[in-house]
Amino acid sequence: MSVGMAVLWNAPMMPRLQQNTSHIVLTAEEASWMTAVPPLVGIAPNFFTGWLVQLVGPRRLLLCTALPFLVASLWQRFATTFGELLATAVIWGVGIGIVIPVSPQYQVEIAEDRVRGLMISMGMVMMGIGGILMTSIAPYVDFFTLCEVMLAVPVLFVVTFWWMPESPYYLVSKGRTEEATEALMRLRGKDSAKEVEGELQQILRSAEQSDQKGGSGTAEAFRELRRSAAARRALVMALVFAGLYNLCGSSAMTANATQIFLWSGSAMDSDVSTIILSSIQLASSLAGSLVVDRLGRRPVLLTSYLAATISVTVEGVYFYLREHADQDVIEPLGWLPLTALVCFFVTYNMGAHALTWTVVNEIVPTSIRGLANSAVAVLTAVVTFAIMKLFQIVSSALGTYVPFWFFGACAFAEFIFTFFLIPETKGRTLEDISAEMSGKAAGGTETDGKTSVLGRNP
Q1: 3-state secondary structure of 260
Q2: Which helix (H) or strand (E) holds 143?
Q3: Within 13 Å and on the Cβ side, how many CA atoms surround 215?
Q4: pLDDT tens-digit series, residues 344-396
Q5: I need a labelling partner for 230 at 20 to 30 A (CA). Which of 13, 58, 209, 436 fits?
Q6: Does 373 share its domain with 257?
Q7: Count of alpha carbons within 13 Å of 45, Cβ hemisphere only?
Q8: Cα dihedral across residues 8, 11, 17, 21: positive or negative
Q9: Does 85 reside within a domain?
Q10: Element (H, E) at 276
Q11: How far apart are CA 49 and CA 102, in angstroms?
């Protein structure tokens, strides 16, 4: 929720901070830096998250992320210059850079196979709740009240998350088997160790395999990449999958939603349009979290990217007509910008947004999962920074329609990539998925690599 509020802060606040009545007046260039800096800063923590997870555990590390969100909101409350506001964006970036890779790793390691997709996608739902809180509150309260609202969220996180158990995978990797058993009993609602014995043995086998390969730290993960073609293939697939997901432009469109509606010339109030869009994003994320463990990953992803391709291309068509067609052609189409964006975010959030981190964490083996999460998070930060920084520049230089058509091309490329290379992972154990990605069926026999990767091998 804190991440969602920080990411969406720019949408309602940047137009206000560029007005002469603001207590800190920003230029368009300064506003673009406020939008782009958090994902850029988020790169740095990702070089250390794998090591930090092994050092303190994902639970403790996540608890520590409350601090940057608290400090940023408090400093923002008393900021008087652009430099101070930019510093708060830097601090936000540190928190986001840790939460994004570590949270899904923790979730995938505590979840049962049957609800793993739901568990991870609920993180996206909470980001959506943070976003809608931001876009619903920010236009109607002053700057300082908004800062105080944002202070409450990390406090609520610490109060609630403090009682969660540590990841059983982490505990087993540290030789704390009894604590891992107790954690599993709490997580599964069981009263005796015998009831979780089977799952504990799976985790122990996974840890034993990791130890045989040299451990599970960052250095060991690099050694595993050097000696295992399957691990390298899984990492490359995860990076391409996540990279194309980010190139679809969701972050740029979300952060610039209010500005997009102002550009569109729609008669509807831009703040109201942004609230509607945030509400739609939340509802679709929630719907997506409810279907990911019912319909399967592949059908939802394929539908999501195909629909996203169409809707964002149509958005580009509207802006092309607005810049090149007569006014009497554009006037009847005033409903189109909001409708196209709503269609994009409904389908995108139900599939791509809800499932990307789920799939990334499922297709990479346990031995390199921490490294893979960090690598994907770094790539996400770089791509997000680039498209958020370039969105307004390209729109001004080449036309507003150009970024939307680029996003549509990337969404179609992701559709093709998913169709041919992403396996179905619904309801399967992490060990089974890892075996398939290694070119072996669960029974240990060699299978045809293409059939296995396509997810058509049961």
Answers
A1: helix
A2: helix 143-161
A3: 11
A4: 888 887 888 778 878 888 888 877 887 888 788 788 888 988 888 788 788 88
A5: 58
A6: yes
A7: 30
A8: negative
A9: yes
A10: helix 270-295
A11: 7
